[in-house]
From TrEMBL:
SUPFAM superfamilies: P-loop containing nucleoside triphosphate hydrolases (SSF52540). Transmembrane segments: none annotated. This is ABC transporter ATP-binding protein. Keywords: ATP-binding, Nucleotide-binding, Transport. It comes from the Bacteria. PANTHER family: ABC TRANSPORTER ATP-BINDING PROTEIN ALBC-RELATED (PTHR42939:SF1).
Amino acid sequence: MTPVLQARGLGKKYGRRWALTDCDLEVPAGHVVGLVGPNGAGKSTLLNLSVGMLTPSAGSVEVLGGPPGAQQAKVGYVAQDAPTYARLSVADHLKLGAKLNPGWDHAVARRIQRLGLDPKQKAGKLSGGQRAQLALTLGLAKRPDLLILDEPVAALDPLARREFLQDLMEAVAEQELSVVLSSHLVSDVERSCDFVIVLVDSRVQVSGEIDTLLATHFRLTGPRRAAKDLPGDQHVVTESHTDVQSTFLIRTEKPILDPAWTVTQLTLEDLVLAYMASSVPAQPERPVLEVQR
């Protein structure tokens, strides 16, 4: 199946500064994908390149099997600040959306009635949550094959955030569309996504279905030993040591048979933070202190 989003060596430069460098990424179809990473990782730049709002300085990006500019009718986009036109009413936004998008679905657009939005209300008078819901309605009524959301709930209060994500999940079930949701809030990803990509310093640290990743990552705690002494099928993501104890976060698809280890399952937050930390140069191990007798 053709990926809905694919980047190869993708980069974007502003003057002398690279906002995104050498990014390789593949987003599968049929998933709600959480794109997570720290601020400055390049998430927004990547998504702006993906919808054709920016042009690459290096490498390439394909959306739905073609260049971004050729796929605009098939892609819905809600930017980070849920942009709307302050002087236009809610109804004006929907009329504009219908005029600009041949596949406009008026039935989907009528969701604003269920949300309690006044069609006559100017967008500049709406709350942050209401503007986000209006922007989501515009994106969904386009009937896209791919919906891209760039931290759409970052500025919302917890209740508005929950309502937005619940509405998104209902729309995904009804329209069977692919979604890429950029966020730095792991709780939002855990609530709404089934696939995660961790992006740090423009590079994908890990990607995959969340259930599979959680089933193949473990924390091992036990007597101190070096990473090189672990079985070859246990890939070390992070490690820490005291004088007598070692803790490893590993990825493996095989059973952990060493009885010396205490094995702990990870949460999604544990996993994401571990891969963020693994991109930082490791500190030298503390030497083992020999006790003089």
